[in-house]
Design a protein that fits this description.
GO terms for molecular function: acyltransferase activity. It comes from Caenorhabditis elegans. The chain has 16 helices and eight strands. By secondary structure, the protein is an alpha/beta fold. The protein has one domain. An eight-stranded mixed beta sheet has the order 4-3-5-2-6-7-1-8, with helices on both faces. Helix 2 packs antiparallel against helix 5, helix 3 crosses helix 16 and helix 9 packs parallel to helix 11.
Length: about 425
């Protein structure tokens, strides 16, 4: 059973919502409701186009460069990464065009997305968390196309799951029965993908499920074992975090493999060709994750939006707050499970206190002003035009090729 304060928060989402969390259709003037009804079909088409037309267009672009996956992997993953980022931008546009502004607070992460490898941990409240992260990733430079997401296996065969599978994201099977095997599989996946595809940010939700589903069991478990009592988050699970840091995290100097140096002109030529084909120096040096980025998402009144809300704009305009806090990965005690648990619980205790402060004062830290993430309307319209135009062009090209091949194969039987 949840405590009284938590139960009030959960009941608030199903009762009379305060301003900032109300449905458009239930408040506002007749004109605003009518305007939402007019926009709804267009927003529905906008959402459907992403999982149908743009989904097909993505693979239409990837087919011509499929040869490069082995021969010239650097080219292949560059093209794939660009397309992957652009598809994510459409989900970011859903919220932006509906009036859901995202503001960034906390530590400046500029240097970390340019040059460093980072493990991102985020609190998990609803299906809106992923679109919110996709929104903040749009201004994170190269890191936005070189992410590795950890997602529940249930999303594997959705349109974005299929694209994520090609990108190198990992789909984790939750549950005690498969825990040990799953962590071994995760380590193998990281070993095969992280450096080979030059990934920068690994993104996961350590709570392992939505807040409203886990909060009761989390509070009960915490009370029983003397762990922190959390109101706005749930106690995180450390298995995936430990596996990630053990496999691609900080290394001791003794574990670093020395690189062979050669003055041979042939070796120099081979290295140059290797650098063109793939980032050979990344595979050779295997740069580890150096930082842990703790991300805290706060929704108005503690009532999260949903993916459907982002797409259809069913809630009134509001602001979503995202706070960043950077930790040095070398200071995370990931080699000791008990110490790692205590460290993560302390991080989430601080996160919970920060959310309590935000919900009561509207600020994570006193006097701090957030930075609004804005998109150019010209870019939004241009992106839709580009992808619809590309689909039309691909449809004609592939139709012609398929028809020509069919005619060629059937020609001997036509006489």
């Amino acid at each position: 059973m949840c405590d009284e304060q938590t139960q009030k928060l959960l009941d608030l989402a199903n009762g009379q919502r305060p301003p900032g969390s109300r449905l458009v259709i239930e408040q506002g003037s007749f004109a605003s409701r009518l305007w939402w009804l007019v926009k709804a079909p267009f927003r529905t088409l906008m959402c459907l186009s992403l999982v149908t037309i743009f989904f097909a267009t993505y693979f239409g672009f990837m087919l011509p460069v499929m040869w490069a996956r082995t021969v010239w992997p650097r080219l292949y993953w560059f093209v794939e990464g660009k397309l992957y980022r652009w598809l994510q931008s459409f989900i970011a546009y859903w919220g932006y065009t509906a009036g859901y502004d995202v503001y960034e607070y906390g530590d400046d992460v500029t240097t970390y997305y340019r040059d460093e490898r980072v493990l991102m941990m985020c609190n998990h409240q609803s299906t809106a968390d992923v679109p919110t992260l996709m929104t903040v990733l749009q201004n994170k430079g190269v890191a936005s196309r070189k992410t590795l997401w950890l997602m529940d296996v249930m999303f594997r065969w959705t349109p974005f799951g299929i694209i994520g599978n090609n990108h190198g994201d990992y789909f984790i099977q939750q549950g005690k029965a498969t825990r040990d095997k799953e962590l071994i599989r995760l380590k193998k996946h990281l070993h095969d993908v992280f450096w080979d595809r030059d990934r920068r940010w690994v993104i996961l939700f350590p709570e392992g499920g939505f807040y409203y589903k886990r909060v009761e069991s989390s509070q009960s478990y915490g009370k029983k074992n003397g762990f922190p009592h959390l109101l706005y988050t749930t106690l995180p699970r450390m298995g995936a975090v430990q596996a990630i840091l053990e496999e691609v995290g900080p290394r001791t100097e003794d574990s670093d493999e020395p690189r062979e140096r050669s003055n041979s002109k042939l070796k120099l030529l081979q290295d140059t060709v290797g650098a063109i084909r793939e980032k050979k120096y990344v595979k050779d040096t295997r740069p580890p994750i150096k930082y842990v980025l703790d991300v805290t998402i706060a929704y108005p009144n503690g009532i999260p939006l949903s993916l459907a809300t982002f797409g259809l704009g069913t809630r009134e305009k509001c602001d979503i707050a995202v706070n960043y806090k950077i930790y040095d990965a070398a200071e995370v005690p990931f080699e000791d499970e008990e110490k790692l648990r205590d460290w993560m619980y302390e991080v989430y205790k601080e996160k919970d206190e920060m959310l309590a402060r935000y919900y009561s004062t509207g600020e994570f830290n006193p006097g701090e002003k957030g930075t609004r993430i804005a998109f150019s309307w010209a870019k939004i319209i241009g992106m839709y035009g580009f992808w619809f135009g590309s689909f039309y062009a691909q449809y004609n090209v592939y139709s012609y090729l398929i028809t020509s091949i069919a005619k060629f194969l059937l020609f001997p039987f036509s006489s």
